[in-house]
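Quick question, first post here. What does this chain look like in 3D?
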Amino acid sequence: MINKRLRSKHSNQDGFTVPELLLMVLIIIILSGLVLTNYQAQRAKQRDSQRVQDINLIDNKLETYYNDKNAYPATFSAQDLFNIDEAVLKDPDGKTIVISPAVGDSVAAQAVANPNEKSTSSYLYVPYPTGCTNAANNCTGFVLKTYIEKPTSTTPNPYTKVGINNN
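> Answer (accepted):
Ran it through. Tokens below.
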């Protein structure tokens, strides 16, 4: 009799069954995955936007340098580029721009390996011609590249800028 009372008391309790609980957990996991994927894609777009902004600003300062010195720099720092914010010379991961040794011409500069997610930096500056230096003021062109995580028709990978005075 006591046994029957206990059984009937427990069988009338409200609650979820094990399959219902498993279904709820599965739904939560699926929704979490969707949210995380969207979050990661949004962060990648933000990093790409920052890269494009930085490359455009560096390009602008390089053209100002050219107008002042009648040549592009072989190497540069933030001070050389009219006190550009040093943060602009670092990619969104905090890695400083890589300045490649000068190469023969614009074709060779374009052919230099593109930056990617495993690169030392996602920013790359390649001056030319071979042997140009800041002291001699004889760099006649450059190629500036950055890695784009989520390429689009307006921001391809790599995103590239070239000197408008390239010779």
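The mean pLDDT is 89.
The first helix runs from residue 2 to 11.
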